[in-house]
């Protein structure tokens, strides 16, 4: 494989605020041929996720930070080019932690990469990084297990036009909930209502979120699925119903903040309303991904759930593509297309 | 009863910050004789609780605010002087919402007052306003139901030398937990360790709470019972174990704040640790008070639980006595002694 070059993005510095170009180091090295038990995978699509910003910081979290100088961590789908392992054949499509690089060589049973075969007949490759991938799993288990959403309840989800938000809203609709999204701008709000069937979506940039919640959730909020933190979390807390559940999935509004983290000053609404705020990390549900994929697969086939991806083409555009997440410029799951399938 | 005068404290103004003397209106009126179905109760002790500060504010909460001009709401124990109701006889001791006044006349089945007969042979009158009253019930159900504390777990409780905190720590010890208190000053800390059997108590005023938590909870915190909010809540959040439970019972550090409420800026620890923060209001467990009283009564008789009261004598001292709570000057359950039993 000496004549093929593997281009990579490595973490050069821990960003302060929004990642900038100098936080990345571009590298290029010959593709390494697989040893015994190993496979060589060509990256086709990479998943760009808000959580990646957290992985760039130093300090204890739910997984170790990316080391300085290491290839940036990312999930992706790829195709097996060579295999010296029983589990995979050349031509197999796989999903796993490929990293921000064009090729991945390693043990077929590598724990960090956690490669699994995917079937492009069942769903397009991009869907495997979205509804049938981490975003969909996060939404499914966050809403059903942590949020305990039940038919007839009112579910509010922020980041409604992001990958997790879109899935949360559609899963909730399939469960018989009333769904109100929160998103920035008329395009996003219009999309989730018209295309995805949300009952309403509040454009927090163009009006008062509080008034929107009063209008669209007159009896209050049973489940709030929070992807953003900050002022939006704080405002929704004022509108909880008794025994409400707040699912803490992320806080994208705070990931690039250089000021101290903003805590939810209205948290005593949890006391008044006997409500709960609970965090979740999708990896805890790994043993049950199949169950969720089967159920969401049914909804996708039945047309009661749609998988929407926003694809940026070109490996070299990784830095700007990642920042689109934090600038709120993506509509649906943001993917980087690295090579043709 | 025309020759007996009932002195009262009424709410004259909604306080800004710590209640001041001009927020109270002293009144005096003849004691009203009971009508048919009514009783006349003489107040013996009044319970002084942090929650009373919240009742003085305008706005929606878990119970309506005290109206301006109304007798201040308070729980108390008293003795029945006259009865024209079947439920009570003169000489009976009762507990209920007597208000900040020397005498209470009203229907024996008044819902707001919720009078119940208590047995001074089973426990002293003051214990009925403490361990066997709201403070004990709050501690018991907050710790066992919301906090789900289990033997072998580490429980941290703030306001450890207050009525609820003392009960929380002692209940947790009886359940087989390791208990670390947080309190202000060496006297309080020494008391809960030496007299009540806490494993440790961190004096947040004299050193670093964070260092104290590292020392006394090296494996982290399973259950945090929060009575204070503010910086203490924020610091404990950084030391949660996986699947920890944070019980939000109160936020005494914030009740008199005139600045905006301080939210817990480290709330994303809930995500990293798959932890939960949940509010509670003791009234929800009213149907089960008997169960808790029976269990705590056993512990009191066995000597594995102690009821500690801090009694201020003299009805006229109500305003200064209430403020002792917010100035952290009480050790144990703060009571106002109104008359001799």
Automatic annotation (TrEMBL), chains A, B:
Its keywords, alphabetically, are: Oxidoreductase
Which residue range or ranges hold the Enoyl reductase (ER) domain? 17-336
Instruction: Please name the Pfam families in this protein's record.
Output: ADH_N_2 (PF16884), ADH_zinc_N (PF00107)
GO molecular function term, any single one: oxidoreductase activity, acting on the CH-CH group of donors, NAD or NADP as acceptor
By its UniProt entry, which PANTHER family does this protein fall under?
A: PROSTAGLANDIN REDUCTASE (PTHR43205), PROSTAGLANDIN REDUCTASE 1 (PTHR43205:SF7)
Protein name from the UniProt record = NADP-dependent oxidoreductase
Q: Which organism is it from?
A: Zemynaea arenosa
